[in-house]
Every structure is written in C-alpha cells, then in structure tokens.
Amino acid sequence: MADKKISQLNNATQLQGDENIVVVQSSETKKATLHQIKNYIVAVHLTAEADVDVDLGVSTYDNTRMFKFSWTGGNGTAVYTLPDATTNQNRIIRFIADSTFTSSKHVDLTPAAGQTLDGGASGNIYRINKDYEGIAIWSDGVEWFIIQKKA
User: What is the DSSP code (8-state) at residue 82?
Assistant: First the structure.
C-alpha cells in the first residue's frame, strides 16, 4: 500500500475502537487500541491543608485530567490555581474531594490571574467544602467553564 496515492486507497470506514494504533518512540514500536487511548485518564491524588497555595499550571500537572483531594490538618482554606486557559484549549479537568472535607475545611479553585471561571470576575473561585463534592471544567482557550457539578 505504500506505493499507492491517497486517491487510490479504499474509502475510509468508521473506527470500531479495537483497531491497533501504532507509535514509534525512539527505536521502539508500541501499540494501543482506540478504546485504551479514549479511556485513559491521568489522575493525581493531592493532600490539601490550610494556608497552602498550589499552582496546577506547573508542568508536573500538564497531562492530569483528574484531581482527587484529601484534607489533612486543622480547619482552613487551601488555594489551587487553575492552569492557564489560553494554553489548555479543549482540556477537561475533573476535581473530586474524598470523605475528609467539611464546611470548615475547603479547597478554593481559582483561575489564573486575569482569567475567569464560569465568566465571573477575575479572581473568582469555586469552593469545594463537602465530602465527595466535585466539578468538571473545560477551557475554550480563553476562560474556564464549569461543565458539571456533583454535590
């Protein structure tokens, strides 16, 4: 098939999900199915505590799609700054709290400076302050939108 022009190839058909997708990395060939790639979520477990600020825009979290929070220590607020919406177009990120949260132990999710979350004023937040609470957000390349809430 390598010697055929694109116009001479058979018509494209719908992917079923079990076809092999091959990638060559350095001198090693790897394969996966569409189902494996489609369902791949990079999750990170973070331990939040009062008066600690964390920037989720650092390269450590570039591929993270799910953040699970646990709380440690006394009452208070931890601030987690969202990645830059302009460099994360079409990225979806989910956040969930475990059973260690109460109304006096909370994580504030805040957009990067000059950006918004759900169209609010710059510096607006989403507060996670109950056990098993969560949200999903999506970037349009300008700002973050809350696309789902679980409370």
Answer: P
How many whole angstroms separate alpha carbon 126 and alpha carbon 117? 8
| 71-119: pLDDT as tens digits | 999 999 999 999 999 999 999 999 999 999 999 999 999 999 889 998 8
pLDDT digits (tens, 9 = 90+) for 6-59: 788 888 787 776 777 788 888 888 887 766 666 567 789 999 999 999 999 999
Joined tokens for residue 98: 């475990």
Q: How far is CA 148 from the centre of its chain?
A: 13
Residues whose CB is less than 8 angstroms from the CB of residue 98 and which lie 6 or more positions away in sequence, other chains included: 68, 69, 70, 71, 131, 132
Closest CA to 77 of 99, 52, 112, 43: 52
